[in-house]
Amino acid sequence: MIDVCALTTGYAKRRGKNAVLTSVSCTIPARRMTVLVGPNGSGKSTLLRAICGFLPAWTGTVTVDGRPLSAYTPVQRAQKIAFLAQRHIVPDCTVRRLVLHGRFPYTRFPRQYRADDIAAVQDALNLLGIADLAEKNLRALSGGQQQKAYLAMALAQQTPVLVLDEPLTFLDIRQQIDLVQTLGRLKAQGKTIVLVVHDLHTALTVADKLIVLCAGNVVAQGNPAVIAGDGTIDRVFAVRTQKIDGADGALLYTFCADGAVSPRPQTELV
User: Residue 217: what pLDDT?
Assistant: First the structure.
């Protein structure tokens, strides 16, 4: 479990100046899928980076499995939490070489990869269905293929916690469905998954726990259906949320601007 208590942080070099998150508290349950939502600039990516230890806590604490994050060494953090960033600088290398970077927490310089490192990379490539791209240059791939390669690198890290900042970016609808199902299987295997999702319907239908941020604060956290029904989504996003019972008993959500005509339900991703 990850526990964030009264956390204030930001990107300024001097503490206390231009904080992005202010006294934020939330809990990430173990072996569950937690989804962060909020308007642009609300602090979602900043919270993910603080959870991973990339940003220091100006005030407050982050604990992982009951231990302060600050007590972990960088290698220990990398063996505990894998992070997929929102943006990437695409290197001139093959997909396999990129995914091998996920094994850095388990190797020493100069990099000498063992059989279990090679196996972890192949497992990640197979899981995401990109084994056939292993020897392709990363720069020659589409945005969606590159996104899968970076996700494979995170999976090859073989950590109990997986933190993903907008992992559905660049993926077409079928790839999104496949990825959501893959994350569900990883959760069933015991992984703790934290991700940012912009599509509210997807967020509400895949999350075990929803955390809603607005202007650097957590305004709601808990059961997605309860949050969708209590007006929080409407207030934070200035929309009108409608819940529809699908033919198979699943919940469907549509959203429209206040006063606008509601669109037809979106296709469910699970």
Answer: 96
The contacts found for 245-254 with CB under 8 angstroms, 24 or more apart, are 250/205, 251/204, 251/205, 251/225, 252/201, 252/205, 253/200, 253/201, 253/204, 253/205, 253/228, 254/201
Position 110: which residue type?
A: P
Which residues, at least 6 apart from 224, have a Cβ–Cβ distance to it below 8 Å?
Answer: 35, 203, 204, 205, 207, 209, 210
Joined together, the tokens standing for residue 121 give 């990379």
pLDDT for 176 equals: 92
d(CA 153, CA 45) in angstroms, rounded, equals 19
Strands 217-222 vs 209-214: parallel, antiparallel or unpaired = antiparallel
Give the residue carrying structure tokens 């429209």. 256
Q: Which amino acid is at 43?
A: G
Beta strands 161-165 and 33-37 are unpaired
Give the Cα separation of 108 and 90 in Å (integer).
Answer: 24
Identify the three-state secondary structure at position 118. Answer: helix
Distance CA 25, CA 60 (A): 9
Q: Which of 67, 146, 52 is nearest to 105 (CA)?
A: 52
Per-residue pLDDT, 16: 66
Residues forming a β-bridge with 3: 27, 63
- Cβ–Cβ under 8 Å, residues 162 and 193: yes
**Alpha carbon separation from 234 to 212, 240, 241, 251 (Å, rounded):** 12, 5, 6, 17
Contact present, 191 and 124 (Cβ < 8 Å): no
Cα separation, 187 vs 30, whole angstroms:
9
| CA atoms within a 13 Å half-sphere pointing along the CA-CB vector of 203 | 26
Low-confidence ranges of the chain (pLDDT < 70): 14, 16, 247, 258-270
